[in-house]
Design goal:
The chain has 235 residues and is an alpha+beta fold. The chain folds into 2 domains: 94 residues, Ribosomal Protein L22, Chain A; 106 residues, Ribosomal Protein L22, Chain A (Alpha-Beta Complex), CATH 3.90.470. The strands form 3 sheets. Strands 6-10-9-8-7 form a 5-stranded antiparallel beta sheet, with helices on one face. A 3-stranded antiparallel beta sheet has the order 1-5-4, with helices on one face. It has a two-stranded antiparallel ribbon with strand order 2-3. A hairpin with a 2-residue loop joins strand 9 and strand 10. Helix 3 packs across helix 5. The longest helix is centred in the first third of the chain and has 22 residues. The two termini are 33 Å apart. It catalyses: apo-[peptidyl-carrier protein] + CoA = holo-[peptidyl-carrier protein] + adenosine 3',5'-bisphosphate + H(+); apo-[aryl-carrier protein] + CoA = holo-[aryl-carrier protein] + adenosine 3',5'-bisphosphate + H(+). Its cofactor is Mg(2+). One of its GO terms (biological process) is enterobactin biosynthetic process. One of its GO terms (molecular function) is holo-[acyl-carrier-protein] synthase activity.
Length: 235
């Protein structure tokens, strides 16, 4: 049986999105960083990277919770309890034949694992709803001119947070395929519905395959004052 540290809730395999993806495993967990103890890493069988040795408890607790979810998702998918390593670019390195994504925010972490024979790449993100003040401050950074016209009030906290999260998921899905970093203004939402479906379009070219104008479907959900978003690239 998998050891679950006392600072974490039991792992949850619930699927939160409106569309269920085939051959994808998702696990999430709640956690309290103040209850993390050093032995939790050893007892979990997960070694912290050198960069975490002097990190604050919040960062250490996020890392361990995310890796616990990732290992459980990979075990459910492949039968092997792999723990994704950290690449030179600090992104998770998934075992051959799989892809995945890890996200965490404000005491909650989740991870997805998928088989690359079905999905080239997958990206998931979570964000706590922005305050009105921060949303107003970030509107011009996150939203493109056309995105500002999709909502009656462009700086609406839900809308800005949703755009933030969807574009983070897009980055997590496309960066492993292109190796190119891109930013909020390099993609835009062209369609979305309150019941959890959206579509994004690249505004800049990342590679021959992923050029400006390419579109991807996305899914999103609001849970406990946080937005969770997902983008999966079909094989």
């Amino acid at each position: 049986m998998t050891f679950i540290p006392a600072y974490c809730t039991p792992l949850d395999a619930s699927w939160p999105f409106p569309v269920r993806l085939s051959d994808v495993a998702l696990y999430s967990v709640g956690f309290d960083p103040t209850r993390l103890v050093d032995s939790d890493f050893m007892n979990s069988g997960i070694e912290p990277p050198p960069t975490l040795q002097r990190a604050v408890p919040k960062r250490r607790s996020e890392f361990l919770a995310g890796r616990l979810c990732a290992r459980t998702a990979l075990h459910a998918l492949t039968g092997e309890p792999h723990v994704p390593e950290i690449g030179e670019d600090r992104a998770p390195r998934w075992p051959r034949g799989t892809c995945g994504s890890i996200t965490h925010s404000a005491g909650w972490a989740a991870a997805l694992a998928a088989r690359t024979k079905h999905w080239q790449s997958i990206g998931m993100d979570t964000e706590i709803l922005l305050s009105s003040e921060r949303s107003l401050r970030l509107t011009d950074e996150i939203l493109t001119p056309s995105e500002k016209t999709l909502q009656h009030e462009a700086s609406d906290p839900y809308w800005v947070t949703l755009a933030f999260s969807l574009k983070e998921s897009l980055f997590k899905a496309l960066y492993p395929l292109t190796g190119v970093r891109f930013y909020f203004q390099d993609a835009e939402i062209i369609h979305w519905t309150p019941d959890g479906v959206a579509r994004l379009r690249l505004r800049t070219s990342l590679s021959t395959q992923w050029s400006a104008g390419c579109e991807l479907e996305a899914w999103h959900v609001l849970q406990d004052n946080r937005i969770i978003s997902l983008i999966a690239v079909p094989a």
